Amino acid sequence: MLPAFIVRKHRIIMRAIVVALVFTVVGLMPVPAQQQNIDDFFRDFAADWVRHNPNQATSTHYFTGDEQNQLERQLTPVDSRDWQRDAVQRAGQGLAQLSKFDRSRMSDAQRVSADVMQWDLNNIVRSDPYRDYRFPLEQFQGANVNLVNYLTVTRTIHNLRDAENYLAVLGQVSARMKEAMDAASREQGEGILPPRFILQATIKQMQDFIAPPAAQNVFVTTYTQKMTAVSEIAPDKREQLGAAAEKIVNEQVYPTWKDAIALLQSQSAKATDDAGLWRLKGGDQAYAHYLRQYTTTDLTADQIHEIGLQKVKEIEAQMDSILRGMGRTDGTVDQRIEKLKQEMEYPSPTSEQSRGQIMVDISGIINDAQKRSALLFDEQPKAPVVAQPYPTFREASAAASYSAPAPDGSRPGIFQFPRRLDQMTKFGLRSVVYHETVPGHHFQIGLQVENTSLPRFRQLSVFGGIPAFTEGWGLYAEHLAAESGWYDGDPDGLLGQLNYELFRARRLVVDTGIHAKHWTRQQAIDYGIEPSEVDRYVVYPGQACSYMVGELKIIELREKTKKALGGKFSLTAYHDVVLNTGTVPLNVLQAQVDAYIRSAGGKP
Question: Most Cβ neighbours (<10 Å): which of 66, 86, 445, 451?
Answer without folding.
Answer: 445
